[in-house]
Amino acid sequence: MGFLYLIVVIGAAMRSGFWFATVASVFSAGCLNYFFAPPAFSFSVNDPGNWVALGAFELTALVISRLSNTANERAAEAIRERRDAERLYQVSLRIFLFNGSQGPGDMLVSVIREVFDLKAVVLFDAMSGCTYSAGEDTAAAEERARDAFIRDSNEFDSALEGWFCVLRVGLRPAGGLALCGCALRPLIAAALASLSGISLERFRSLDREYRAEAARQTEQLRAAVLDSLAHQIKTPVATIWAASSGLMALGGLSETQELLMNLLDEQSRKLSDIASQLLKTAKLDTSSSALKRELLRLSDVVDEAVQTLDVEQSGTRLRIFCSAGEKPVLGDRKLIFDALGQIVDNAFKYSAPGTPIHIRLEPGGAEATLSVRNEGPTIQPADRERIFERFYRANPTHEGPSGSGLGLSIVKRIVEAHEGRVWVESQSGMTSFFLALPLAPAEAVAAVSLPDSESE
Question: What is the pTM of this model?
Fold first, then answer.
């Protein structure tokens, strides 16, 4: 009967806990003493066996209740972990299937709040400076989310029943996340913060990829249009130019007619130059013309460019300085010649009449730098980057000589194709354009001998 009462105590401890099992053990010990211990139907207080039975029942109740509580807690913890894992999976799946119809921040806070049944969710994106919220009473949570980003730490507020976590991209903080209205486990709060940070970075990467692809397709379409337009313009312009030149060669024109024919000849020549520039730009955009790299000295290219200039115009104005010990570069002679010729032509076009044009070639580290300086209108800081954009012309040039706005964009594309740099410096009426091209590798120079250059 003692073992039977022991089973009753064990059942009470497993089902209802320690205190109920204590009552059951006292009751079982009393019944065992009254009904089965001699003399029957009476309580024997002095019998040590009764106290041993009561101690055994109580010890069993304590051990079994503790074991039962531990097992129940572990089972409940396992259920919570499984439920949290399912919720995290739902959040991840919905983020993965995001269609982009709304902003990523708005989507993230709404999904997290809905899946985890939170009172409020606030997301602060430090990269864009935007704050996204979903739920009620989010003003205080927004401030705490910013504080978590500033402090670069996670914090739990028992009054708000909320976690305030920092978002990270790699090792650097990228924002803050507030999860209010539910006592989430620390691991789940940290996982949601990591998932939010990764999701924002993923959306930004996708956006950059889409923009890059759209820009590439736009450039391809623009290059095709420019190529087609240039070819369509080239033939009629050449016909007009030939006809005007033929009429002027025949003679017999009145003074007014000759003036009009000169104007027609001049403008048709300009149209032909614009068409040539459009064709050149289209070729550079589509990379249809591969670079014909060869070892060359920039001083030789300068000499070739100078020889094509008008002697009367350049003879007294041009100043050329080449440093001794010039090292060669590896590049396409024709393209570099075109780039230098465009910059020198701009220098003559936009400089003050009669002022000198300085061309200076200096080696500098791993680059050979060529500069063209002239006196003329100062290019404002806001225009110094944009003048290399296609069809853009700086404000001081609007009232100066006419142009298409293509020349400097072609120069930049040629220099970038050679992995070089091009920039402009302008102040106090002095403007200098710089072209920096990487020097040729030592093994390439050793394989080919070039004649020594002379400094001038």
Answer: 0.45
